[in-house]
Design goal:
Layout: E1 14-16, E2 22-24, H1 28-49, H2 53-73
Antiparallel strand pairs: 1-2
Helix pairs in contact: 1-2
Amino acid sequence: MAFKIYTKTGDAGETALIGGTRIPKSHIRIEAYGTVDELNSWFGVIRDHIQDASLNLSLASVQNTLFVVGSQLATDPDKT
């Protein structure tokens, strides 16, 4: 079963950054944080399949950094 999500802000090909600024969905910032998020999810898959605790800890650190980068990309720099 698929659920539809309504934000009641309309679409018009735009999305909001953290801070409320609306930018086109085609903006490089949206592409960048989507790519960072996808990379981060792959690190999670890798961590789920490895046994080496030390490597897992190192990859967790990389994931944490990717979360920070993604949140910075998703935030309007003028409204931080």
